[in-house]
Specification:
207 residues, single chain, nine-stranded mixed β-sheet, disordered N terminus
Amino acid sequence: LIIDIGDYMETKTCIDDVLFTSDQDYIIIQRENGFLSLGDSRMGGGLKRINSIVIHGLGSKDNVSTSSKWEERLSLKRLLESYDVLEPASVMFGEYNIQKTINVSIGKVTVIVTVDNHNLPVNVVVIINDELDETTLVKLFKTIIQAKTATLWDLGMFSGFLDLSDSVREDSILVACDGPGDLKTSKEADKLRLLIFKCVKDAIDKL
């Protein structure tokens, strides 16, 4: 399933009880039962339990480009309150073109990729309908980075670190699963890595 959300629709992910809402300026992914997530978002990053994932981009009346991290966090907090976002939340904010977001779901994996104002893929959110241990989550986070880099290289969009210098500050990667679970076997983890690599590649290829 491949969905372009340019017409601001609600859509589903691989987890049935996730509410996926989009508009021209934002994507909000919420779940009352929450996620176990690992990411480098500007707010709510790290390894933690969250209830929402927010991607906020171009054209917003809310300007969180402030002079200090403390002021930025206050602005992001007001942003969450204005949209009635379930907290805690992981928030990605920057010069993103939300209307060019691609959502790819294959089996138990959903990948959501957004681009910046240069049409370069910057954010990759991976949602997994499975309970995962922290070790596997870290491995999958690394897989997402590898898949993104390899796909950009194959497309001729990345020939070295400097090619990404304009957007590297706003790049974010996040992997979220159904919740904590038992340690995966090597075979189970490898199967997930291959599926995620394929989903990330398919999503970026469609941009």
